[in-house]
Design goal:
- This protein is α+β, with helices and mostly antiparallel strands.
- It has helices at 27-34, 39-45; strands at 3-9, 12-19, 22-26, 51-57, 63-69.
């Protein structure tokens, strides 16, 4: 089962999904925090094991396919952009 959690980073909300294989981040949110506008292009540059799709419920109650990454680390590489801002997950509390 996928469990959605929301974390705050520098005043921004980042959605994460806890899956059996670990913590995954919503790529669109990570890109927004990093100032990257084209998250689909970023997804194309990531390795197959770094990106996946998940079903999330939108504000209207519809199920939408959402691109997720298995950690925000790949987005700090050259595949994502020019910034060094990196969202970090905190297990405390």
């Amino acid at each position: 089962m996928n469990e959605l959690k929301i974390f705050a980073y520098s005043g921004e909300e980042l959605r994460t999904i806890q899956r059996e294989d670990g913590l995954w981040w919503v790529l669109r949110d990570v890109c927004r925090v990093l100032g990257i506008t084209n998250h689909k292009m970023v997804a194309q540059r990531l390795d197959e094991d770094e990106v996946s799709l998940a079903d999330l419920i939108d504000a209207l109650g519809r199920t939408q396919k959402t691109t997720i990454i298995n950690e925000p680390g790949p987005c700090t590489r050259s595949s994502c952009g020019r910034t060094s801002r990196r969202p970090k997950h905190s297990n405390g509390g």
